[in-house]
Backbone:
């Protein structure tokens, strides 16, 4: 015991405020079930795999560790042939919960944790428990074993506010909802739409008690839109779906103003107003999430994208490692699998990963480069991709630490909720730009390109060229050009009838991007007045790898979010030679710079705020208020609806008035600075937030939470030609590309459903469906959401 006695001064007992890491190594994906187990430091409570514990002990001089090895075996009453059992029925669009998408049943196994105390560098072992161990060590180990792991603590925080995997926020409108006293009583059953003969998919308006049918789906199912038409006529904002109300206070409630499914905290009171006793109600109809599942099954989308009906041949080895999805972050899995086929990522975070591991910072959990390297080496080492013993289940890495670090302080990615894959990619691009030193290469440079916008004033004929930095080419899908092919169809699984899906060619989408658009209400500095302009965009540079998004998540004319169900033909090859910019021509005359002496026009912020509450984007609202001369919210709304299809509707309002405001040095309100700093924000965050919100303290607080990490006071993505010419990180080359990866999405919303990635490796298509990796038999190239193209040299 003498060897333990001399290290007691470094031993600590974790309190409830300490993070205890005991799920996976901070440098690799070894876990308690790995053959070599985990080593938990009794001083820092960090944990390490066998390949890293010894060097950590040497550098940190922390020598005493709790070794944890979890023995796993099949329960004796279970069959050994687990993979022959049918997977459980899917009833919810969620992961890791009952009825959701889960491939592993932990109840089929039993576990036994074996503990030892190991002292480095001599590797002296003391079995635990042992009453002869020093009291301090026994207390430390006991506290570690009883403590929630850091990952479990964070997970509990992240799942707060979720319901069955579907995100629902408490409605702000519900608290003060006005209910009309019209003596209307609603029977507990036997409902019928007041405008048609529908007896299902009925919604009760909680203001006046109107019972009306729901929205019509694109395939003809659903209702006749009478409920939403009632909202547009009356403005009564909240409705509950009859048939989903149950005695446990659950129901589908939709807020038209908040444009989302919500929680009504006063649902019992609101229903009681119309004589409905919630404790006597029984759920009779499918909820919206259950209907979404039915829709996916009817269209065959799920089985097509996951290739669940094909006999897939599993793959393992370097580059064929899947990711275990123990939360709704398959969006992260798909994006990272795609990025780690780019040589720049492999070189920095796999080939050269040793340089980061050897640094051994005080807290590697929060080190961006270390966690990126951990992920990269986990995917490419092959160590975690082989089948487990007896081939009972798929193995993969579970990127919990990486996900927690990437999502830290972000309002969306810090949760366990499903998110949009492109949003995550752009967030990662921002973090890489922030965390990589200027002297180091940024792997994202392989995907970065410049778009040149050319605007021509129709009154003067003068032109303006601007360039912007992009990481993804986002393309609108002109559904008016889609067509149906009688040869290609999908089978309705429930009725065995043909279901047609509209199709469109890639070339049609590209042509739509390259066309010249007309901009109304354009301020021309040449004539110093409002006119129209012509605008088109071209590539100033072409990247080594081009990410393309087909914008399937869009808005209807009434601003209701929908997902376009469309197939895209001929996506394998891409030629952008006709879209390369040629720059200013000799016969063109540039528009003069805007006159900074033009008087400032005040935009009525109250009208803008009302438009934002109605769900309109900020820049669209600002333009509407400006061009209707601050007249009223009604006229501003009408202006937006008339210009909803304008390509620049969400572009920043660029007028001389705004230009002048930008040129004035911003002076933040000292009192507001103090208030924000007292809330824990630093002075740079507070100043930037107040600058972006015109010194409005309430809006500034919201701005900070919606722009985590964005405190760059001089941030400006608009660069001059001279600046672009000296930016070597913009690569350029051949305009011909081939498809090497694509990400598909299942579900009607980017915040629900599931993502799957297909990658071309060694001349064969491989499907990455969470931790399942296999040769793809029928890669659904026409149904993707994000496409990665590689330049053909």
Residues:
């Amino acid at each position: 015991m003498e060897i333990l006695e001399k290290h007691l001064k470094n031993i600590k007992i974790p309190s409830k405020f300490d993070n205890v890491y005991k799920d996976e190594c901070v440098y690799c994906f070894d876990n308690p079930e790995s053959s070599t187990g985990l080593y938990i430091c009794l001083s820092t409570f960090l944990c390490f795999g066998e390949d890293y514990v010894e060097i950590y002990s040497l550098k940190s001089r922390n020598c005493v560790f709790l070794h944890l090895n979890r023995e796993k075996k099949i329960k004796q009453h279970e069959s050994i042939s687990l993979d022959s059992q049918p997977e459980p029925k899917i009833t919810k669009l969620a992961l890791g919960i009952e009825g959701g998408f889960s491939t592993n049943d932990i109840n089929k196994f039993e576990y036994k944790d074996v503990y030892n105390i190991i002292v480095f560098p001599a590797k002296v072992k003391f079995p635990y428990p042992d009453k002869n161990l020093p009291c301090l060590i026994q207390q430390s180990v006991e506290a570690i074993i009883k403590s929630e792991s850091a990952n479990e603590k964070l997970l509990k925080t992240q799942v707060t506010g979720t319901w069955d995997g579907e995100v629902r926020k408490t409605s702000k409108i519900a608290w003060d909802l006005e209910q009309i006293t019209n003596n209307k009583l609603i029977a507990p059953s036997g409902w019928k739409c007041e405008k048609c003969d529908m007896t299902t998919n009925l919604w009760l308006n909680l203001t006046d008690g109107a019972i009306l049918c729901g929205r019509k789906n694109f395939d003809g199912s659903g209702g006749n839109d009478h409920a939403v038409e009632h909202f547009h006529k009356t403005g009564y904002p909240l409705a509950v779906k009859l048939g989903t109300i149950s005695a446990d206070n659950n129901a589908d409630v939709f807020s038209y103003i908040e444009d989302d499914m919500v929680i009504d905290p006063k649902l019992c009171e609101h229903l009681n107003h119309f004589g409905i006793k919630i404790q006597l109600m029984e759920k009779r109809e499918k909820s919206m999430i259950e209907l979404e599942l039915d829709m996916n099954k009817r269209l065959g989308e799920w089985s097509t994208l996951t290739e669940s009906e094909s006999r897939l041949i599993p793959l393992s080895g370097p580059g064929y490692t899947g990711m275990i999805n123990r939360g709704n972050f398959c969006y992260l899995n798909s994006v990272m699998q795609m990025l780690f086929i780019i040589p720049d990522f492999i070189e920095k975070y796999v080939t050269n990963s040793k340089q980061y591991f050897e640094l051994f910072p005080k807290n590697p959990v929060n080190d961006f480069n270390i966690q990126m390297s951990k992920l990269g080496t986990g995917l490419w080492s092959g160590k975690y991709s082989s089948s487990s013993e007896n081939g009972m289940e798929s193995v993969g890495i579970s990127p919990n630490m990486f996900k927690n670090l990437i999502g830290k302080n972000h309002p969306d990615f810090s949760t366990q909720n499903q998110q949009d894959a492109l949003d995550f990619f752009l967030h990662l691009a921002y973090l890489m730009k922030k965390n990589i030193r200027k002297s180091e290469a940024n792997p994202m440079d392989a995907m970065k390109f410049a778009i040149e916008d050319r605007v021509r004033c129709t009154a003067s004929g003068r032109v303006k060229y601007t360039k912007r930095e992009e990481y993804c080419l986002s393309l609108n899908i002109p559904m008016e050009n889609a067509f149906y092919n009688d040869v290609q169809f999908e089978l309705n699984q429930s009725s065995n009838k043909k279901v047609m899906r509209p199709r469109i060619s890639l070339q049609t989408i590209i042509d739509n991007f390259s066309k010249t658009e007309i901009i109304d209400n354009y301020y021309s500095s040449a004539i110093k007045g409002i006119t129209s302009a012509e605008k088109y965009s071209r590539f100033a540079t072409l990247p080594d790898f081009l990410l393309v998004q087909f914008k399937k998540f869009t808005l209807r004319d009434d601003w209701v979010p929908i997902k376009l169900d469309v197939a895209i033909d001929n996506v394998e090859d891409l030629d952008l030679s006709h879209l390369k910019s040629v720059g200013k021509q000799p016969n063109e005359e540039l528009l003069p710079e805007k006159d900074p002496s033009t008087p400032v026009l005040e935009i009525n912020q109250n009208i803008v705020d009302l438009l934002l509450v109605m769900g309109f984007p900020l820049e669209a609202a600002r333009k509407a208020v400006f061009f209707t001369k601050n007249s009223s919210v009604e006229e501003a709304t009408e202006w937006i609806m008339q210009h909803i299809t304008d390509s620049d509707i969400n572009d920043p309002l660029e007028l001389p008035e705004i230009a002048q405001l930008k040129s004035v040095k911003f002076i933040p309100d000292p009192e507001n600075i103090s208030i924000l700093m007292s809330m824990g924000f630093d002075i740079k965050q507070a100043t930037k937030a107040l600058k972006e919100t015109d010194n409005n303290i309430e809006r500034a607080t919201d701005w900070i939470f919606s722009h985590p990490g964005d405190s760059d006071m001089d941030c400006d993505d608009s660069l001059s030609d001279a600046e672009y010419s000296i930016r070597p990180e913009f690569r350029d080359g051949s305009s011909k590309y081939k498809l090497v990866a694509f990400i598909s999405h299942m579900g009607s919303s980017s915040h629900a459903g599931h993502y799957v990635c297909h990658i071309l490796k060694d001349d064969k298509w491989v499907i990455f469906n969470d931790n399942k990796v296999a040769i793809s038999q029928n890669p659904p190239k026409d149904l993707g959401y994000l496409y990665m193209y590689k330049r053909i040299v």
Notes: The CA atoms of residues 26 and 364 lie 7 Å apart. The mean pLDDT is 80. DSSP finds 23 helices and 35 strands in the chain. The chain has five domains: 2-158, 166-296, 302-446+735-791, 449-541+552-591+603-631, 665-724.
